[in-house]
Amino acid sequence: MIEKRIGRGLLVISQGDITDSGVDAIVNAANNHLWMGAGVAGAIKRKGGAVIEEEAIRKGPIGVGEAISTGGGALRARYVIHAAGMGQDLRTSEEIVASCTSASLRCGADLGITSIAFPAIGTGVGGLALNQCARGMLQSAAAHLRSEPGAIERIEFVMFGEGDYQAFAAELENVEP
Predict the structure, then answer these.
(1) Which of 28, 27, 26 is nearest to 36 (CA)?
(2) Per-residue pLDDT for 91 more than 80?
(3) Which residue from 53, 65, 116, 150 has the fewest beta carbons nearer than 10 Å?
(4) Does pTM top 0.85 for this prediction?
(5) Exposed/middle/buried for 37, CB within 10 Å: 0-12, 13-18, 19+?
(6) Gyration radius of the chain over CA positions
(7) How far apart are the two ends of the chain, measured CA to CA in Å?
(8) 14-39 pLDDT, tens digit each
């Protein structure tokens, strides 16, 4: 695990299973219709229960780059924030990932949370290169910690695989404190 203090908060890169994170909210890498299929969404649904997807679908669809929150079901986290990193075309970009990261942080701030965990958004089905994903997400998170009022103090990026972890760790070095 590596950490970097940014403004009033902390950016953290760790490796593990996001569904086990001891944070207030975890982020689901979602499509804009909020159906939970494979990847991170599938893992969240398996561990947290179908109630998470049912609540999300009632709140959707949402715009690509936006985010909504649901309860956390049986997860340790109280909330799941669903970040629409792609539409039905299943494609994304660094700009979209940055936008849904910012939207997720605003959503979390509105919930009054102090900690949040993100997966790498858009690198699976969306086909986004890991370095582009890491750059977009980390720059958005750092900008939030520098400028947005709110209670979020810890923004963690939980990577399942070693390659993802290394890409995010390398990109964190480029983030200004």
Answers:
(1) 28
(2) yes
(3) 150
(4) yes
(5) exposed
(6) 14
(7) 17
(8) 999 999 999 999 999 999 999 998 88
Place of tokens 């086909």: 127
pLDDT tens-digit profile of 74-87? 999 999 999 999 99
For residue 51, what are its two tokens? 């109630």
* Mean pLDDT in residue range 142-152: 86
What's the rounded Cα separation, in Å, for the pair 10 and 116?
Answer: 11
Tokens of 127: 């086909």
Q: In this structure, are residues 19 and 75 in contact, taking their beta carbons and an 8 Å threshold?
A: yes
Amino acid identity, position 149? P
CA dist list (Å): 169 to 90, 119, 145, 166: 26, 13, 18, 5
67-71 and 79-86 strand pairing: antiparallel
Distance, in Å, from the CA atom of 54 to the CA atom of 70, rounded to the nearest integer, reads 9
Burial class (CB in 10 A: 0-12, 13-18, 19+), 34: buried
Q: What is the DSSP letter of 20?
A: G
Closest C-alpha to 82, from 71, 96, 92: 71
